[in-house]
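Let's sit down with a protein and look at its sequence and fold side by side. We need material for that, and I hope you will provide a protein of your own picking. Once you have written the record down, we can walk along the chain together.

***
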Amino acid sequence: MPQRKNTFSFRRRRAAQRVVHQAWAWIQRTGSVTAEHPAGFRFGSIGEATRLAFPLGTVFGEPWIHLGSHCIVGEQVTLTAGLMPDLDLGPDPILRIGDGVVLGRGSHVIADTTVTIGRDCYFGPYVYVTSTNHSYDDPHQPIGRQWPRMEAVEIGPGCWIGTGAVILPGARIGRNVVVAAGAVVRGTVPDHAVVAGAPARVVRRWTAEDGWQPPLRTPAPVPIPDGTTPDQLRALADLDEAAVARLADLETES
């Protein structure tokens, strides 16, 4: 015979789960770093409404890290300036992140020399940006013991960097560039380009003379008309839900 559920134990587990989730949410809110948070004072600058989510990844060299306003730094994001903690890196910032930048969960930005990320860039999860590469000139020394090569990295404004992309030392990425997921970028990427592959190459580009080449396969999204109010958007959402429900009823009737 089937055993009867222990209703009391079930309710106790649900109550415990609720407490755990509420406690974790409180820890995340309390542990996140903002300009007003004590940990925020260590940074060279943090702009208004910028938040580093908890738990943080590895973070050091904060005095040489400058974060713009309205940035979102996801969980487990690593931000470092300098080869190791407690170095004096001089008077100028090493890692500059512009306004409105979003760094996805688990991403790494390693700025042993200057790394600049322009405003309104969006990074997917687990993007890796580094200004340092291992050298292997000496065949008799372990590669990890050889002095690395460093070269500045610059990512222009308005870029989208896909999940798992790698940006190598010396990369110069232009304005409004799409970097495909898993791409490995080195060298110079022109404005308004789409790059993919390892090493990344330009697979599509926009110019004022020719537009997108090769042409886009899908029509551009229709923007929301100017002057549209939130109430109107909510009404459209309700209308869509009603239409879906009506279609489901028709399918059932047929």
User: Anything to note?
Assistant: The mean pLDDT is 89.
